[in-house]
Every structure is written in C-alpha cells, then in structure tokens.
Amino acid sequence: MKLTPRSSDYSQWYLDIVLQAKLADYSDVRGCMVIRPNGYAIWEKMQAALDAMFKETGHVNAYFPLFIPESFMQKEADHIEGFAPECAVVTHGGGEELAEKLYVRPTSETIIWSTYKKWIQSYRDLPLLINQWANAVRWELRTRLFLRTAEFLWQEGHTAHATEAEAKEEVLRMIEVYRRFAEDYMALPVIVGRKTESEKFAGAKETYCIEAMMQDGKALQSGTSHHLGQNFAKAFDCKFQSKDGQLEYVWATSWGVSTRLIGALIMAHSDDKGLVLPPKLATRQLVIVPIIKGDSKTLVLEKASELHKQLKANGVGVFLDDNDQQTPGWKFAEYELQGVPLRLEIGAKDIEKHQCVVARRDTGEKLSLPLDAALPETIKRLLNEIQNNLFARALAYRNEKTKEVKTYDEFKAQVETGFAIAHWDGTAETEAKIKEETKATIRCIPTDESFIQQYDLRAEGKCIYSGKPSKMKVVFAKAY
RNA sequence: CGGGGUGUAGCGCAGCUGGUAGCGCGCUUCGUUCGGGACGAAGAGGUCGUGAGUUCGAGUCUCGCCACCCCGACCA
Predict the structure, then answer these.
(1) ipTM entry
(2) Three-class SS string for A102-121?
(3) Which of A51, A183, A292, A479 lies 20 to 30 Å from A249 when distance is taken between CA atoms?
C-alpha cells in the first residue's frame, strides 16, 4: 500500500506508482501490459493533443496491416539487421504453415512503402503526409511497464516528398511538434538534437530526437523523427516523375512517439505520495470531496453538486466523489496517489463562511477560496499555474543536474547523477569505448539553439576521452 | 542470455526440527462515523505454481519442470 520512497529505490518507486495508481497491470503474457482506465485516459489526452497538432501540420490518418511479409522486411538491409532479432513472427494461419512468414510489425516502414509505391507516380502525388495510430511489437529481452513493453501503442508518421530539402524540413517540423507537445502538455523540458551514427534508427540517414531527464538523472528518449533519405524508396522501387520529366526516387521521413511518454510523465513529475499529472493531460483536473458531519449531509451534497455543475459549465475537468463508503482522509490520499491536480474540500463549516478549501497536488499548498461567481476562473488560473510550475520545476532540476565536464574523471562522476556536456572527437570508436566503460551514451548532438548557447556547445576543444580535437560538445547520459 | 529473487485467499505476507493452513489489507451484511488512508459486530473466500520421489503422513524434505518479478547486457 505504501509507496517505496524515491530515495530508497527509484525503480521500485516507479513500479509502485504505476501499479498503485492503477495506470497499468501485468498481463498473463510475458512482457505485455494491460493499460488500465487511469493510464489509458492519459494516453487518450495525449492522442487528442498530438492528433490535432498533426492535422494542423497537414497530416491525415490511415491504417496499415499489423502483418508484414518477411520479404518486405528483408528489402532494406540495415532495417532487417536492426529489427529482425526482436520481431515476433507468424508461421501458421488457419491451421496450416504459411508459404511466407508474416512479421508482426515492429514499425511499419516496409509495409507502408510497398503501398506508397502504388500511390505515387508523379510529383503531383507528393507530398504524401500520413500518420497512423497503432500498436507495434518488439520482443524485448527485458521489459518495464510503459518504458519498454513487448507490445506498445504509438503513432507513426510516414511521409513522402519530392526533394531532400522538403523531407528534411518535415523531419525538423515534426521533432519540433514533439518538443512543443512535451513542453506545453507534458510540462517536460526536452533537448532537441540529432543522434550519432551508431544511435540512429535502423534504415535512416539521420535521426532527430527529444531527450528528457528523469528524476534520477537518467535520460529518456521520448520521441524520434527520422530522415530516411531514399533508402526505402530504393528498397521498394518507389519513383515519381518530376516536373521536367525525370524519374526520381521519393524522399521519406518517419516519426513516432509511444506509450513510453506515460512513463516519462510519471518519472518526471511524481513524488513519494504518488502520481503528479500536468493539468493539460488530466481527465480529472479537480476532485470535489464533500465533508459530511452530523446532519449536514443534504446541505453539503447540494452545495457540492452545485459547485460541480458550475465548474463543469466553465470547462473544468471536475469530478465529485460523493461516495460515503470512504472517509475524506482516504480520498485525499487516493487522489493524491492518482495525481489529480486540484482537490476541493467542502463542508458545513465552509458553507457557513461562504468558502471552500482547495489543495494543490504539485506543492501541497491549501487555499481558502470564496464561493462566488469568480471561483471557476480562479480554479482555471490555478490549473494553469500548476502546469507552468511543473515545467519550471523540471527545467530547474535538469539545469541543476546538467554539467559541463573537462576531465574523464569528472565525466564518470557526472553521468552517475545527471547529464554531462563534453567534447567528443566524433568517432564511433570513442563513443563505443565510453559506453563500455561508463554505460553512458551520447543522447544527442543538440540542435536547439538556446540549449547550444546555454552551454556554449560550439566552442572548440579536446575530446573528453581521446584528447583529439573536437568541434562541438555533446550530451552524454545513462539512458532508459 | 547471465545474476538475484518469488510462486500459500483478490492483494501483501507468515507458516520453526514434516502432523492436514493462518495474519494484515481488501471483499459482503448491519450499525456508528466522516476536515489526512475510521470503528464495532457478524460473514464469505485456499486443488499451498506444477510433476515425480521420500514418508504412516508433505505447504514444509529431495529432484525435475513451468511461470513471473527485479538487476545487468540489447533496444522506443
């Protein structure tokens, strides 16, 4: 019942929250989870916000099959090499062995590009901007609820363009959408950057990502946007005729975020009392807890449902818990565990004084507010403040835990507790050595101008490991 | 795939040198309560993961198998 405190075992704390706040449960299938209503509600909020942002940037939704013929998977060499070991493969159907095995999608580039080939003939068919909301399966060796499960929910955007410049623009546009979503909705500050050659997506020319810091100082890759070049177009022979009559291969991008974001949300903001949800992603933004004493029941419940009506009419995600089976204290603890941003207490004493008590989940602060027509506006202002405070708090934490290091010793100490900003000679060998010795990886080569300036990343220097000349500092961290 | 751990009531666990299963929470009913996880009374709920073996007798001992969890390596 009690949560393991963060300080004693961070990873157990995380699991305790997921299970006790009823976000997810283990299933009877290894590595797969059941997303419970509390967790799924967060996903629905995320979907709604992201989907609107995708539509605003010109994308439409479609759906492609779960099954991918083995031969499709094999068409792009890097792709199959990267994904084959972690794929689930269907060998039988209708009681008979299949002539060709079917892969359960680990990602949909191949099935989509085999289809795009049929849809694209001319530059007039471009760009093609499609997103799909789906599930994917990767047979991971080790799984953790939300952060890495064998089956996960996600969205994957797959776009086709006439020129490389256009594709590149799309890649950057979408990573920017992810940044905005993470910061504005999840209240999660992220570093936007490019992956190194060894960390990029299997089959991509370049991979851009957003990296977030969790409360244990580790990094979580929270979204990726890939510049696929002409790799998949060539693999699937997808050409178009340009304005001047030339046959050219199509340029591609793909980008995605998954239910892992829910894990990020939990690890970034929550505390030893439970989940802390940013108001924009909370279905239940405020819970009304009536305090019933003696014969005040009718009076208090009437007032409570009046408040419920008033707040609801003003667009607050309000919920009235008038269940008389639990005491107020039980409810306080329960909704704190579940991360409800605001709690409103109303009892006979309050009604007499024409006020109510409102408690903030992020700070624990309790306020007395007058019961009047201005209440909904005050509540909305508070929700907004909580949203901003969570972001500010997370950003301050990241700044505090991000340090530039000059020596390898400092480096080793720094990646134990946070992000290390360090010079790197640009070679995969150095990157691999550092990973082997410290378990820290290059999270990204930042492209975010404000972050670059904050840590003066363009200054020249010497590689933290090899001592060779380096033109830019990068971000190192241990990662989930 | 290595290392560690756990399988006993819905959940968390106890069960000693073998003698036929118990505690807390939760659940049901009734009553009293209600401003930080209330209290009383009465109930319901278990092929002890699984298969062998030892024994008069196995939750307990022996061997095998299975499953899951945690920590690593690999990955969104």
Answers:
(1) 0.88
(2) EEECCCCHHHHHHHHHHHCC
(3) A51
